[in-house]
Amino acid sequence: MVYIYNENGGNVMDKVNVKSKIVVTLSADKDQWEDLYKKVEDNELYIDIIEYRADLCGGDQTADYLEDLKTLKEKFSNLPIIFTYRTCGQGGKGKLEPNEYYALNRSIIEEGHIDIIDIELFLYEDLRNELIDLAHDKGIQVLVSHHEMDHTPSLKEMKAFYQHMQQLNVDYSKLAVMPEDGRDVLKLLTAVYETKQDSDHHIVGIAMGEQGKLSRLAGGVFGSALTYGHIGQEAAPGQLHVQQLKALMEIYQ
Ligand SMILES: O=C1C[C@@](O)(C(=O)O)C[C@@H](O)[C@@H]1O
């Protein structure tokens, strides 16, 4: 049998199957960054994209974030950078109010040396849409995200989230949910699969926690474009070290 692969590494017969890119989630206080740069260098083979989690970086200083981003870009110029400020309601530590969140993200878009920006779906519509347009004007891709930290919505609801996201003129649509059992993980993967069947968008689906690890490893088979890992300590429940992630993902691809 001859297998033909598309540019994403998936079988051409299967539009849904993609090779998920590995995103490493990074955060550190000022005095820990040197150690972290070293860890990124040591693990570069296992990383496709860097995510800078501003809300976990201590202080809420735009200037500090900009400085970190500039250094990251200088050191790892071949790795695209996602900027994420995750608010408390969405599983992060960020305490900014919507207008402050808007102002921070706007400054980062304008000066941040980033490639992709993570914008939360339920930010006020006008602020969110303005950030999306500003990012695109600057050539920055937009990843719109939504987290359900304590449950997994129904399949219908998850597909509706993805439909809503895709109507926003964004580049990536990401949903992260908390499963209670294997059935919830299957539901999330089904939502990704069924959405991806009719879509050329980058769809991302994550089932968090211990039960959800399957989605981080095999998400590509169902059409999930990104999977998130760590190089020190997990930034979200169920995250795996990027080395382990890459090794185990090979099984599915
Ligand atoms: O949205 C995500 C996914 C994530 O929550 C995870 O479960 O790996 C980790 C976050 O840093 C990232 O922004």
Automatic annotation (TrEMBL):
Entry EC no(s): 4.2.1.10
Ordered alphabetically, the record's keywords are: Amino-acid biosynthesis, Aromatic amino acid biosynthesis, Lyase, Schiff base
Fetch the CDD domains from UniProt: DHQase_I
Q: Which residues bind 3-dehydroquinate?
A: 51-53, 86, 216, 239
Q: In which pathway does it act?
A: Metabolic intermediate biosynthesis; chorismate biosynthesis; chorismate from D-erythrose 4-phosphate and phosphoenolpyruvate: step 3/7
Q: Which superkingdom heads the taxonomic lineage of this protein's source?
A: Bacteria
Instruction: Kindly identify the residues recorded as the active site.
Output: 147 (proton donor/acceptor), 174 (schiff-base intermediate with substrate)
Molecular function terms from GO:
3-dehydroquinate dehydratase activity
Q: Does the keyword Lyase apply?
A: yes
Q: Which InterPro entries match?
A: Aldolase_TIM (IPR013785), DHquinase_I (IPR001381), Type-I_3-dehydroquinase (IPR050146)
Q: Which reaction does it catalyse?
A: 3-dehydroquinate = 3-dehydroshikimate + H2O
What does the annotation say about its assembly with partners?
A: Homodimer.
Q: Which NCBIfam families match?
A: aroD
As for what it does, the entry says: Involved in the third step of the chorismate pathway, which leads to the biosynthesis of aromatic amino acids. Catalyzes the cis-dehydration of 3-dehydroquinate (DHQ) and introduces the first double bond of the aromatic ring to yield 3-dehydroshikimate.
Provide the family line: Belongs to the type-I 3-dehydroquinase family.
Q: What is this protein called?
A: 3-dehydroquinate dehydratase
